Structure formats: C-alpha cells, structure tokens
C-alpha cells in the first residue's frame, strides 16, 4: 500500500432515556441497539478487504467509544489504546436535559455563555478541538506509514477534524454534520509526501 489511511469512527447509539446533554460525563454506555451497531461495524471491518488490514485502534476514554471499539479490536486481534485527544468536546451545558435546554440555560445562569456561536462560546472552541484532533492524526499518520489506523471518537471532534483537513472554516450548522452514528470518515494520505489525497465518508451500519 502506498497510502496511509486514518479512519475516524463515531461511537454507536448511547442509552440516554432522560435525553441529557452528557458530553464527558461518565456512566453513559451503549444502548442495546448501540451494541448491535458496534458488532455490525466490526463485521464490516473484518469482511472489508481494505479495512481488515487496520494495524492500530485508538479510542476516546469514554465508555461509549470504548464499547464501540471493542468488537472490532477483538475481531482484528489487536490491543485497544486510549487517548484523551479523542474525547468529546467540553460543554457548559453538560447535565442539562435536551427537552428543556433553553429554560435550563437561563435558570442555571448559563445564558452568558451563549454569545458567539462561531467560536462557540458555550464550550471548548472549534480551534482547540481541531488542534488536539490534528495532533493525534498527524502523530499516527507519521508513525504508521503505509498502514491503516482506526480512531474511535465523537461527532463534533471527527467533523471538526474533517473540516480542518478540507481547509474549510470550522464554524458550521450542527444540523448538517455528515457524521452519523458508527459512520467512518477516512483520511487518505500520500505516504511519501504526507499530503491529503481524499476523504471518504461511509455509513455501512444503518
């Protein structure tokens, strides 16, 4: 293989009956459907000729990401590494229920954070997310030349990494993020030059 490919996998569905903004809160595991999704993705990876040659799997330390990665790691007979650079973004609204988010933002005194949606002002900035994600991507790209790596992370970090490599502005409409549950966003680099050749987005598990 003359290319180095960094695959970014978003975690599967989470059990969250109270519809809470959980972000980095511990204790949020995959739902029964999420477990099925993670297993189906592991089968896809194992059966797909190019993906089955993945040499390294690195996950966000959050439970939902680890539980999504485990079936694939098991099928590929690899060890699972953890890296905090793949964590979900920080958010001042953590713990608020989505159904009453506007009321709770006002009630909890968080309205002062809703000032700049382009930054955004209510949590970790897009730039900071971009810096930590590109840091690990560049690290593994250089360490595993001519190989494939799987990074298991979360919607916003993956999408910001994609926009960074596409050289697009980081602010965006959250409703238009192309990063579904257990989707794969693959960055294909030329191993000799390190240049990005293309980005491939796939949703093999419905």
Helix-strand layout with pairing:
Elements: E1 3-10, H1 32-47, E2 54-59, H2 63-76, E3 80-82, H3 101-107, H4 126-143, E4 148-153, H5 155-165, E5 184-190, E6 196-202
Parallel strand pairs: 1-4, 2-3, 2-4
Antiparallel strand pairs: 1-5, 5-6
Helix pairs in contact: 1-2, 4-5
Which terms summarize this structure?
5 helices, alpha/beta, globular, 206 residues, Rossmann fold, 32% helix
CATH-defined fold name: Rossmann fold
- What is the topology, as strand order, of the major beta sheet? 3-2-4-1-5-6
Q: Total number of helical segments? A: 5
> What's the story with the biggest beta sheet?
6 strands, mixed
Tell me the CATH architecture.
3-Layer(aba) Sandwich
Let me know the average pLDDT. 93
Number of strands: 6
Q: In terms of structural class, how would the helical and strand content be classed? A: alpha/beta
Portion of residues within helices: 25-40%
Query: In one word, what is the shape?
Result: globular
> How far is the first residue's CA from the last residue's CA?
29 Å
Radius of gyration: 17 Å
Number of domains: 1
Subunit arrangement of the protein: single chain
Unreliable parts: none
Run of helices and strands: EHEHEHHEHEE
In CATH terms, the superfamily is Phosphoglycerate mutase-like
Regarding CATH, which class?
A: Alpha Beta
Roughly what fraction of the amino acids lie in strands?
15-25%
